[in-house]
Structure formats: structure tokens, C-alpha cells
Amino acid sequence: MRKMTRLFEIVQMLAAARRPMTGADLAERLEVTPRTVYRDVAALQAMRIPIEGERGYRDETGRTTDRVLRPFALVYFSETANLVAWCELRQAIRHFRPDRVTDARLAGGHFRGDGARLRKLWTEGWTQGPT
């Protein structure tokens, strides 16, 4: 599916939705990865399409989760910054909004030498874990 078609489909799906949709929901319906949906939504927001969204630590029922992260990049979008990290809970690369983090502590471990490999996986769109 071409990007412009996908952007149009995202706008149509969100306009027709009776409740908030997750990136995973949109990705499944569009047959793309959630990361692609996040990039597409950021592109739509940059075009001043009024899309609001929240990422990370709360689900649709308001539950929070504890995560162990291996952060390796900080990305700036027009409205917010995103921490890019390997998430031990999901065993995948995920994006987290620092302004939505309610508590953070150093875990005491290191992952030296893994940052370059994780950045490469991220830029290639993979979700494989550290070896």
C-alpha cells in the first residue's frame, strides 16, 4: 500500500472510530508494522491534521506497567520527544514518551556494545531482541 493511501486510510479509520484506536489496531488493519503507523501519524500531525494520541505505560483500562528498558535513541517530533528503547517486557523495540513516565530508576546493569546493534535493528524496522 502506498504511503499516501495509507495516510488517507488512517484518517478515515480514526474519523469513523467510536473509541480510541491503538497503533497495533491500525497496523493490523493496514497490514503494516506499528512503527509504520507511528511514523504515519507523526507525518499527519506535522501536516496539522488534529490527531491526538498517547503512547506507553497506560492501556485502555488505565492500567500501568513496569518496564525494564535499554534506551538507545532520543527522537524529536514536532510536538514531543520519544525515547527509543529495547523493552524487556515486550521483547521488542518500542517508543516511549518521557513526559508520560511516572517513575524511573537505574536498574544497575549495563548493555555496553549493544546500542549500535539496537539502532541498526531500529532503522531496519526489526523487532528482534538482544542476543
TrEMBL record:
SUPFAM superfamilies: Winged helix' DNA-binding domain (SSF46785)
PROSITE patterns given in the database record: WYL
Helix-turn-helix type domain location: 6-56
Residue ranges of every copy of the WYL domain listed in the record: 57-105
Pfam family, one: HTH_11
Protein name per UniProt: WYL domain-containing protein
Species for this entry: Silicimonas algicola
